[in-house]
Amino acid sequence: FRDFIARHRSDPAFEAECLLFQPLVNGAGLLYVVDGSEPVLEIHAAEMEILRLTGQPRLAIINRTGSDNHVQDWKRRLGLHFNAVREFNAHRATFADRVELLETLAGIEQSWKPRLMRAVEVYREEWERRLDDSAEIIVELLADALTHREVALVEEASGSRRAVAAEALKTRFIEA
Questions:
Q1: DSSP state, residue 40
Q2: Looking at the predicted structure, is the pLDDT value of residue 157 above 70?
């Protein structure tokens, strides 16, 4: 891959390949994300084989976005070329799903483990902070809602004046 980059660095026809391979040559790992609703094509098989040949740590992620009728085929094919394969839906992923993905990455390459586990720790701390902030906001809103009052003096009024005053109070209460 180093030789490929050296030979084709200035060739516009291989600009994308050189951009992809350079971080891998420098020691980066690889996340390969596929759409589980799309079929596996021969071009995908060729990409997977090329990426396998880099020898770098590789994690494949099957993005579950809708009709996942090709997921099993993707799993089978990806399993031949990647250190780990995970299904993931970024739109529906829970906190635990996201942590598991980081922990999977940490398990692929031992030298990454300390930094990735630190990232998990920071992510958990941030999640706890967000939960605390959310709880505080909810408590403040509940306290405001439960103690809110609207008051109006209505002199000896007829039933219709009373009804108008009550409706005005109700409107003020809702808008407050």
A1: P
A2: no
